[in-house]
Amino acid sequence: MNEDLDNSLCLTANIKKGENIRRVIKSLGLFNELYKIETINNKILIPITRDLSSREKKQIKDIDPYFIITNYSFKKRKKRVSNFRDYLLQKVDPNYIKFLPKSFDTIGNIAIIEIPEVIKKYDKLIGNAIIKTFKSIRTVYSKKSIVSGKFRIRKLELIGGIDNPITIHKENGCLFELDVKKVYFSPRLSTERLRVVKQVRNNEKIIDMFAGVGTYSIQIAKKRDVEIIAFDINPNAINYFEKNIILNKVHSIKLILGNVSNNITKFKNFADRVIMNLPKTSFNYLKDACQLISKNGGIINYYQFISNEQKISDITNKITDEIKRNNRILKETIFYKKVKDISPKKSQFAFDIKII
Q1: 235-247 and 215-223 are packed helices; what angle lies between their axes, rounded to 10 degrees?
Q2: Averaged pLDDT of the chain
Q3: Rounded distance, CA 318 to CA 37, Å?
Q4: Beta-bridge partners for 228
Q5: Which of these, 105, 128, 101, lies nearest to 116 by C-alpha position?
Q6: Cross-strand bridge partners of residue 158
Q7: Residue 264, exposed/middle/buried by CB under 10 A (0-12, 13-18, 19+)?
Q8: Phi, psi for residue 321 in degrees, rounded to 5
Q9: Tens digits of per-residue pLDDT, 291-330?
Q10: Can you name the residues that pair with 10 across neighbouring β-strands?
């Protein structure tokens, strides 16, 4: 028997209907990624992991009433070391392939991945696959909890490489040293941070209300001649922020360990811009932002989690009402955009709020 061939369940259909059927099979999680789709004459042969249910067969029959399920000796896919999922295809039960993560967050030389409970038994295999196929990664952690607590951190479990949570991450030309177990950091906000940096003009006075390790402040100070006051309640974040100021050779940033709400009097009407990257509870601090903004007006870069059931118009109306309650008014219509998905039912949005 040819070693490059292997027997599998096969769905055979009219080649003209093949693309639509392939999409349905993939959406159902039934495509067997171990093998290549083949065509013979006017037929397409799609490898599948199991027989179809009655409901699934009806879906296919609506596309091609003459499809059949049979067996076929398919050509195996060649292993590619550049893709950790392809490495796993050879080692994971075909019935579980559809649950394999398609991506992960990379922070410096650390990978952080979310593994569904149904394939928890494969976590070490997944971790080692990432180490094996990405030479720049030396540590892989799986998420063991959601981001929570006053310091916005999550529990992580080592599943590959060495247990060293300290790394240096490069973003938009800046370097950030951090401990992924002790501070909050999301590499998926890179594009959004750059968007805000591009808004800033020289000589702005800025308050970064929830600064973390300095991802917004340092990138702004690197590009613009500004004055920044940065707050955070996490001493670990402030410690790394101080290191990152030196690492990036920036100045004009004053760090304060503590809650911004306790410093309103000192910095009242100081800022031309306030950055509010605390999407879970940011609304509670809008009144503080209104007091911090200059009497001549300014911009609030505001972030909030929004569920699919909520209407953006309701959110912007609520923000507008809160601004009015604090004796400020909108200079123009609130700009908003989705920054990233948090879950299938929740997203993080950015709002640019110009007030006077």
Answers
A1: 20
A2: 94
A3: 52
A4: 206, 253
A5: 101
A6: 141
A7: middle
A8: -65, -40
A9: 999 999 999 999 999 999 999 999 999 999 999 999 999 9
A10: 47, 70
pLDDT tens-digit readout, 21-56:
999 999 898 999 888 899 999 999 999 999 999 999
Read off the amino acid at residue 47: P
Q: How far is CA 132 from CA 20, 157, 260, 277, in A?
A: 35, 18, 44, 35
DSSP 3-state of 177: strand
Which amino acid is it at 196? V
Please identify which residue in the block is written with the tokens 């009402």. 321
Angstrom distance (rounded) from CA 194 to CA 191: 5
pLDDT, residue 283, reads 97
For residue 304, the SS3 value is: strand
Distance of CA 214 to the CA centre of its chain: 18
Residues in the chain: 356
HSE-up (13 A, CA, CB side) for residue 75: 7
CA 162 to chain centroid, in Å, comes to 23
Quick one: pLDDT band at residue 1, thresholds 50, 70, 90?
very low
pLDDT of 173-222, one tens digit each? 999 999 999 999 999 999 999 999 999 999 999 999 999 999 999 999 99
Q: In terms of DSSP bridges, do strands 5-14 and 68-75 run parallel, antiparallel, or are they unpaired? A: antiparallel
pLDDT exceeds 80 at position 90? no
Name residue 152's beta-bridge partners: none
pLDDT tens-digit profile of 92-102? 888 898 899 98
The token pair that represents 40 in the structure block: 């013979």
137, 164 Cβ separation under 8 angstroms: no
Torsion angle in degrees (nearest 10) through CA of 28, 30, 33, 39: -100
Report yes or no: 160 and 128 within 8 Å, Cβ to Cβ: yes
pLDDT value of residue 89: 79
Neighbour-count burial for 81-92, b at 16+ CB within 10 Å, e otherwise: eeebbbbbbeeb
CA distance 13 to 258: 65
- Environment class of residue 184 by beta-carbon count within 10 Å: exposed (0-12), middle (13-18) or buried (19+)? buried
Placement of tokens 């981001």 in the chain: 147
